[in-house]
Design a protein that fits this description.
The chain folds into 2 domains: 175 residues, Glycogen Phosphorylase B (Rossmann fold); 137 residues, Glycogen Phosphorylase B (Rossmann fold, 3-Layer(aba) Sandwich), CATH 3.40.50. The protein is built from 12 helices and 12 strands. The strands form 2 sheets. A 7-stranded parallel β-sheet has the order 3-2-1-4-5-6-7. Strands 9-8-10-11-12 form a 5-stranded parallel β-sheet, sandwiched between helices. 44% of the residues are buried. With 334 residues, the chain is α/β, with parallel strands linked by helices. The radius of gyration is 20 Å and the shape is elongated.
Length: 334
């Protein structure tokens, strides 16, 4: 391939002013809010990209904008501080910047700057009426085909798609561990409350017959696999989503999945086939889907089987092909 290096920015409580942020809001956030120690913005995917590139002999680094440690997933790549990366990166290297921080790459020498779009809901909000071209970007990287289509009328830049994958050797069913009528939802975004509202709308006899787990968003990957394997039904409550990893991971682990696609989940959630879908933010629709899957054993098992089969098409080999194709294209070899 090429000797170009790849630098992926990873954010926590960013020191940069976001495009949608007023001067007063920026000052308040920097001066008074408690500094986050947990990075945000598809961190696992960024680390997976870097591991894939390094394994292929292409030098790649996650670059931490802030002080934090990524220790809840297995990875082999070495993260850099922002200063280390600025000192190392040259004009011919590739800088990959989170979609929500279009100005974050200004201090880097890299001429080849890619906006990594993992959540379409953050694009318009953080561009402040501008486009990525206006910030000096040379291309877009999207983590789903749905996002590629979403960005088509928001930028004229070249769009690359590397569809997310999951390690299917880890995310797999364990039927002996599954608890019948157990319902799992993740407290991952504020929208998880729609799941609680849906449970509250169930008939009292049905509600009393189920076991509901509301899992905090601070689990390791191994802990998440164990939680999925123990659950009978997974309720997807996140929106908007650029890809929606949790419902796919749940499918791979043998859960019957219901809930919101957030947009990106439509890559693998097909209503009545691999999942029961409710419109994003519709608590009544979510409750109806949960009622159906709990009350109809045949439907639940059909969705479970079809969801598992669909998840098998989203392994790491597919993701690796997409990442390497992206790297070849931006290195002038695609």
């Amino acid at each position: 391939m090429s000797g170009r290096r790849f630098f992926y920015l990873v954010t926590a409580d960013t020191p940069y002013r976001m495009a949608s942020e007023s001067l007063a809001g920026y000052a308040h956030r920097r001066l008074f809010r408690r500094r986050k120690r947990v990075p945000t913005g598809g961190v696992k995917i960024i680390y997976q990209h870097c591991d894939i590139l390094n394994a292929a002999g292409i030098e790649a680094y996650p670059v931490h904008l802030g002080t934090f440690t990524v220790d809840w997933i297995d990875h082999k790549c070495r993260p850099l501080t922002e200063k280390e990366a600025r000192d190392l990166a040259g004009p011919d290297d590739v800088l990959v910047v989170p979609e929500r921080l279009p100005a974050a790459g200004a201090a880097f020498a890299c001429r080849n700057r890619i906006a990594f779009v993992q959540n379409g809901g953050l694009v318009d909000k953080n561009l402040g009426g501008w486009r990525y071209e206006d910030f000096g970007f040379t291309g877009l990287l999207c983590c789903s085909a749905w996002l590629g289509d979403f960005m088509a009328n928001r930028s004229d830049l070249p769009r690359h798609v590397a569809v997310n994958g999951i390690p299917l050797d880890r995310f797999r069913p364990a039927p002996e561990r599954r608890r019948p009528k157990s319902v799992l939802m993740l407290k991952r975004k504020p929208t998880w409350q729609y799941g609680r509202q849906a449970v509250a709308r169930l008939a009292p006899d049905l509600r009393s017959a189920i076991e509901v787990a509301e899992l905090e968003n601070r689990q390791t990957e191994r802990e998440m696999v164990a939680a999925y394997q123990a659950a009978d039904i997974f309720v997807a409550t996140g929106f908007p989503e650029g890809f929606a990893l949790p419902p796919l991971e749940a499918m791979a682990c043998g859960c019957a999945v219901i809930g919101f696609t957030g947009g990106g989940g439509s890559e693998f959630m097909s209503d009545g086939e691999t999942a029961l879908i409710a419109p994003d933010g519709d608590a009544a629709g979510l409750a109806a889907a949960l009622d159906r899957v709990l009350s109809d054993h045949q439907l639940r098992e059909a969705i479970r089987r079809a969801g598992y089969d669909r998840a098998q098409g989203f392994g790491m080999d597919r993701m690796r092909d997409g990442v390497l194709a992206f790297a070849a294209a931006v290195s002038g070899r695609g």
